[in-house]
Design goal:
Layout lengths: L25 H5 L8 E2 L7 E10 L6 E10 L28 H8 L46 E2 L5 E2 L10 E8 L14 H4 L3 E2 L7 E2 L1 E9 L5 E3 L10 E3 L2 E15 L5 E14 L4 E12 L21 E2 L5 H6 L14 E3 L14 E3 L6 E10 L4 H13 L6 E3 L12 E10 L10 E17 L6 E17 L6 E14 L28
Parallel strand pairs: 9-13, 12-14, 20-22, 21-23
Antiparallel strand pairs: 1-2, 2-3, 4-5, 6-14, 7-8, 9-10, 11-12, 12-13, 15-19, 16-17, 18-23, 19-20, 21-22
Length: 527
């Protein structure tokens, strides 16, 4: 850092107020009024480094420059401890595509995921990788799922819509792809990628680089006719391989859905595949294939989502409870949800009779983007007691188990407590209904739920994210009724969705976008 000087612009001349300029003499420094660059450091992202500090002693006669080297500590939470990766200190010149090397570059970088080193995804090599010696004995997020011969394939489109079999399925990365496969009836039995055997003949390694294997079982087989009708077959123990029958190629794989079961220690315990088989005639030159992979932890039930990631209009809001102090939920069970996503957050369901007592237990789910209002009427007599009446109306409005949290996204995980929005409860009062006696009773008569959401992410494909939820209970003062008198009280529930997205500034223009898919490990090691 003593040799660095950003303000040294003139060659063999002293730059004014540049205290680090080696061309400046003591006489020059005595004429300076300040140091334009008081401190010089290297990479500001380092956790600790040497820093050259320059200042002027104006009390000296004549004024003189003061120079010292200190150890500077970076206060940021994320910093670089050591720059030991020499390749990252400079940019390598990319290889420009030409007509001669285009096929080679496409093979190296054309798949959904690739390595900077050519040949690193060689499926036929059995030689151990020296870098695997430091790998932990478990799968981590995004790591390709290994099989006996290579990795679990999840074909996907590359440059065009044609299928590439070089895309590995990443651990805990739910993916769904569609691509086009070139086929013909004449080559019906020779195209590996349209055979069930191609997707289940290689066992999965329970943990990376281990000898423990998990076979891929057939979960279900669905047959699709030429007109699109699907039939679920009863037996899954017999492989149905492609074959020619009456100028048709039948049992061709149109879709594969993998379901992987894993433990909390990153070990795969089960793997199953659900197939959709179809047929083509001799005029067909290609078929569209769909592929999907999903993951479920052992001893847990999969929870239906309401979007991925943003909420989808018309799907129910995901809600739940935290049975402990919120910080403890982060460390233990997380958010607890009802297995039926349509009963996690509900409001009163209106009935044809409009009788509140008859409507008890009738609920309707809160659907994202749908403003709703429902209600009923309650006939109150002088014989009714205040406390039981209040509790009855409260149960009628909020239901038996009103949740405490709402998921900010449609795919928020239960263990990510900070990704859930707490419901804020408000209370307000109305005017009195009847006033002939001094005895009164506060009863709830309405529940108003307001859901504030915003458009999150890209302007091209914004995702709906919930940022605030309030539940306001309005009470009214009911005076004691004379004997023989009764009063009809309306009870209402409502849900309002409010878009609080910041409007685009005048003249704002979105960044240009391209319709491409990033590799699953693009942000590795960050999730």
């Amino acid at each position: 850092v003593t040799k660095l000087c950003a303000c040294d612009l003139l060659v063999a001349q002293c730059d004014a107020n540049c205290c680090c300029d080696p061309d400046c003499s003591a006489e020059d420094f005595s004429l300076f009024t300040t140091c334009s660059i008081p401190i010089v450091t290297g990479d500001s992202r380092l956790c600790s480094q040497k820093a050259a500090v320059y200042s002027l002693d104006v009390e000296a006669n004549p004024p003189e420059r003061i120079f010292k080297v200190i150890d500077q500590v970076n206060p940021n939470l994320f910093c670089i401890h050591a720059t030991n990766y020499k390749q990252a200190l400079s940019f390598s010149t990319p290889e420009m595509p030409t007509s001669e090397n285009f096929d080679e570059l496409l093979q190296r970088f054309g798949s959904a995921t690739f390595s900077a080193e050519p040949g690193s995804w060689n499926e036929n090599t059995d030689a151990p990788n020296p870098s695997d010696a430091n790998e932990t004995n478990r799968y981590e997020y995004g790591v390709p799922i290994q099989t006996v011969d290579a990795f679990l394939r999840l074909p996907s489109p590359v440059v065009s819509s044609w299928c590439s079999d070089a895309n590995p399925a990443g651990f805990l990365v739910n993916q769904a792809t569609k691509c086009i496969r070139s086929v013909s009836v004449e080559k019906c039995g020779t195209i590996q990628a349209v055979s069930m055997l191609f997707y289940i003949n290689s066992s999965i390694l329970a943990v990376p680089n281990s000898s423990q294997m998990v076979n891929i079982s057939v979960q279900s087989i669905t047959v699709q006719s030429l007109n699109g009708t699907r039939t679920l077959l009863n037996g899954t123990d017999v492989l149905r391989l492609p074959m020619v029958l009456d100028e048709l190629c039948i049992n061709m794989v149109l879709g594969v859905s993998y379901h992987i079961t894993y433990t909390d220690t990153g070990e795969i315990t089960e793997a199953a595949a659900a197939f959709v088989l179809g047929a083509i005639n001799k005029e067909a030159l290609s078929i569209e294939q769909s592929f999907e992979v999903s993951f479920t932890q052992v001893n847990t039930e999969p929870v239906a989502l309401s979007g991925n990631p943003g909420y989808i209009v018309g799907l129910p809001l995901r809600a739940g409870f935290c049975t402990e102090f919120p910080f403890n939920c982060v460390l233990t069970s997380g958010i607890i949800q009802n297995t039926n996503k349509y009963s996690q957050l509900t409001i009163l369901h209106s009935t044809s009779s409009q009788d509140c007592l008859a409507a008890q237990g009738a609920r309707t789910p809160v659907l994202f983007g749908y403003n709703m209002i429902s209600g009923c009427t309650l006939r109150i007599t002088a014989a009714m007691k205040c406390q039981p009446l209040t509790q009855t109306l409260l149960d009628l409005l909020k239901g038996q188990s009103f949740p405490e949290y709402v998921a900010s996204f449609g795919n928020s995980q239960a263990q990510d407590v900070l990704d859930w929005v707490p419901i804020t409860h408000l209370h307000s009062s109305e005017q009195r209904i009847y006033s002939t006696s001094q005895s009164s009773c506060q009863i709830p008569v309405s529940l108003e739920i307001e859901v504030k959401w915003t458009k999150y992410g890209s302007l091209v494909n914004p995702q709906a994210r919930i940022v605030n939820v309030t539940a306001a209970i309005t009470t009214t003062t009911l005076m004691q009724l004379p004997s023989g008198r009764e009063r009809i009280v309306p009870v209402t529930s409502s849900v309002v969705f409010t878009d609080v997205s910041s409007p685009a500034e005048p003249g704002y223009k979105a960044w240009p976008t391209i319709n491409v898919k990033l590799p699953f490990d693009f942000f590795f090691p960050f999730v």
